[in-house]
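Exercise 4. Each item below gives a protein and its sequence. For each, produce the structure-token representation.

Item: BTB domain-containing protein (Megalurothrips usitatus).
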Amino acid sequence: MQTEGIRAPLEDAGTARLHADGTLLAFVCGYTAAFRGRVSVHAHAAVLTVPAPHFATLRDQRSLCDVTFRVDDREFTAHRVVLAAASSVFRSMFDGSAAAADAPIRDTATAASFEMFLVYLYTGAVADCVCVNTMVDLLELADRYDVDALKHICVERLLHVDLKNAVVVLRAANERPVVPEEVLVVATQTIIANMQAVMGMPEWADFATVHPVAARCLKATWTAFNLQHRNTNNNIIILD
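Answer:
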């Protein structure tokens, strides 16, 4: 390599970019060289791909972790590079000298949902058996840290629940702004279509106690729908 005239061959050594595709983390390392003080070039030095489960194992072993979160009086350790690969918010948070701070980062989530959040960032997987409220907690974390793929998973789960959990989703949609309108609409339609069965559920009794106006509106909508349906049937004229 011709080196004559190079003022600072590794002026910006250590510059790195990283990418994640859900199963692999790829690190693209490089350096910047200034020629004769005028021209800078960026050269890729190496590309390294590492299976994501390897990072999950390191976290489980609390090995080489460089960031700590305090949630619900519990501490969670992780690797900044993994979090930054999955979240633009983490990437901004860890960019610069502040990233080296030793103080734990505090989050208002529940410990259970934050653990699930970290598991997703490391593995791309969400457990099948997750209660509605924890799923909404997870949705809030995905929204807070800008993890779109996880938001999509959470919304899809909330859109496809059984009748009992539809009432729980309805309550969450009335109390948690992060729950999108499409989830509220589907839960409402499910409940109105099965109102007679729903009114005997303890989940409905809890909802009606906390949100009496919303419960009355739903019952009134169901009554009006049934009345209109009966009137429509009564007005049918059968011709010979």
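Check: Confidence is low (pLDDT under 50) at residues 1-23, 27-51, 236-240.
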